[in-house]
Write a structure and sequence with these properties.
Rossmann fold; 7 helices; 9 strands; five-stranded mixed β-barrel; alpha/beta
Length: 237
């Protein structure tokens, strides 16, 4: 067991899908995996391990909201449970006018406005990339095999959800071609980029709202389109 994950060695698979919402982790495990065991319920941050339809063993772990929370779970998954691949399955706000809710974004790299990386890199800027092998495989599988339209490009991770200081900050990122804004990808990619961590990282995001147009997904549509990300992850596992 680690500090925040009440699992024993061997109960977590080398590949982990990482939604933020622990209840979404539960739904994914129930819908897509068989012979499922629950290995974690500490802090209600549920974690499950099961088998895909093609016979691959995979785990689904909630990570909570924001980069600090994700960073805790990623660190423990990698260092305490020898996880080798982490695929974030999350939602994001679209930043480009031609985007629509339900669009799938695969993050090529992730900028951030967080103080975490400012401190980590001593005031310098770092935009960590996705694992290139996973990125190329995801694109190929989504477009050629599953026929799921996707967009590949930069995203930005923010540490403020309700930004009442600069409500138009997103427009700056949008003007530089950033596709979407979330709260976790930058930390996942930063940890994955560190050479001694030794794991592959990829972030697949569903656009839940579009900031320039105000378009938003209903709760029903969020669930339906979220499953497209899982279909891609299944093929990568």
């Amino acid at each position: 067991m680690s500090t925040h994950i009440g699992a024993t060695k061997g109960t977590i698979a080398p590949t982990v899908w990482l939604p933020g919402d622990p209840l979404r982790a539960k739904r994914i495990a129930e819908k897509f995996l068989t012979n499922v065991i629950q290995y974690n319920d500490w802090r209600n941050m549920f974690g499950y391990t099961g088998w895909t339809p093609t016979g691959q063993r995979v785990s689904v772990q909630g990570s909570g909201m924001g980069m600090p929370s994700l960073g805790i779970y990623v660190h423990e998954l990698v260092h305490e449970f020898d996880v080798k691949t982490i695929i974030r399955l999350g939602t994001a706000g679209g930043l480009q006018k031609d985007m629509h809710t339900g669009d799938i974004v695969i993050a090529q790299c992730a900028s951030s406005n967080a103080g975490t990386n400012t401190r980590r890199f001593r005031g310098m800027q770092f935009a960590p990339p996705a694992d290139p092998t996973l990125l190329m495989e995801a694109w190929t599988l989504a477009v050629e095999k599953l026929e799921i339209p996707i967009r590949v490009g930069g995203v930005v991770s923010t540490e403020i959800f309700y930004n009442d200081v600069d409500m138009d900050e997103w427009k700056l990122w949008a003007s530089y071609g950033v596709l979407a804004i979330d709260m976790e990808t930058s930390e996942l990619y930063t940890l994955g980029a560190r050479q001694d961590h030794g794991f592959q990282a990829l972030s697949i995001l569903t656009v839940s709202d579009v900031l320039p147009t105000g378009e938003e997904l209903s709760a029903h549509d969020r669930e339906r389109t979220f499953m497209d990300m899982v279909r891609i992850a299944l093929q990568l596992t």
